[in-house]
Design a protein that fits this description.
53% helix; single chain; three-stranded antiparallel beta sheet; Sufe protein. Chain: A; alpha+beta; binds FE2/S2 (inorganic) cluster; 6 helices; globular
Length: 129
Amino acid sequence: MIEEERMKMIMDHYENPRNFGPLENPTVTLRGGNPNCGDTLNIYIRTGDGDVIEDISFDGEGCTISQAATSLLTEFAKGKTVEQVGKLDSDYLKELLGKDIMITRPKCSRLALETLKSWVREFEKGKTA
Ligand code: FES
C-alpha cells in the first residue's frame, strides 16, 4: 500500500470508526489504556461456539493511531476464533499501519493488539485450568 493511501485509510478509520460503541451482553469487557498519555480503551467481545468471536466493538478516548488501529483490529477479529486473534503480531500491525508509524508511535500502534492478546492468554489459560 502506498503511504498516501495508508494515511487516508487510517484517517478514515479514525473519523468513521468501525464497530464503535458498547455491545449488548458482551461475554467480556477489556479495559486498556496508555498511562503515558491518559488515553483509554474499552473492547467488548461476545464469544460463541467454537471460541468464535461473534461480535466485537470498542470505545474510549484516544489518539488517531490508537483509535484507527483498534477499529482495524475489530474488523479483523469479528468472526475469527480466539486462537486466530492470538496469532496476530507486530508484522500484522506493520502491514496495516506501516513501518514508520510503528516506529514513531509504538505504544499507540500496539495498544489494542496488546489489550486483545492479554485477554487471549487469559482465555486460553481458563480452558486449561
Ligand atoms: Fe495515547 Fe496514542 S497518544 S495512545
